[in-house]
Amino acid sequence: MDQLPTPHNNFFHFALSHLPSARSLIATQLDAEALKELKLETLKLETLKLETLKLETGSYVDSDLREKFSDLLFSVELAHPKNSESREANVYFLFEHKSQSDSTTVLQLLSYIIRIWEKRLRDGLGLCPIVPLVVYHGETGWTAARKLADLIDGPEALSAYQVNFEFPLLDLNRLSDQEIDGEPILRSSLRLLKYVAALNWFSICTTS
């Protein structure tokens, strides 16, 4: 994998590559309000073997997209797959971090997910659930579209024929320190990301 392009990305990648932190983020976010809005509340922890969580190697994005993605993709085995004879019964968790409210994020995520599915098909595997999560730590709250439909300019009568995609968002700016939960490394990392925009901490460290 190429080196990540910014100190924020490097730090996010380092923190979430720690498997206990990644497990903790999944465990704390599966029942979060953002996921419930996407009707993912049926995906409970008992359906997953979190001990099988692993960081997927390689990248599904080209050099242009890689500048926008931190490329953190995890796979987890399903405890009770729908098809018991499936060669691989996994759920993928796609973690992305943003320091700015970006109106194209929803399209970028969908492009990434499609690339993952295309590679699975080339490898002789079926499509699997992919749960994206954007961790945002900008100076102000997230204001960009989270639904693909909000980017499509067209009559309401055609909306039923469009792709229905929305991503859950963990907006650190809107959370108090006490509301940022998880195991110690995850909790400390998310709190640090929350304050770097205001303190310009990474710029200080990289220029000193």
Automatic annotation (TrEMBL):
Chain segments annotated as transmembrane: none
GO terms, biological process: DNA recombination
A Pfam short name: Transposase_31
GO MF term list: double-stranded DNA endonuclease activity
Domain of life per record: Bacteria
Residue ranges of every copy of the Transposase (putative) YhgA-like domain listed in the record: 6-198
Protein name: Putative transposase
Organism in which the protein naturally occurs: Rubripirellula obstinata
Lineage: Bacteria, Pseudomonadati, Planctomycetota, Planctomycetia, Pirellulales
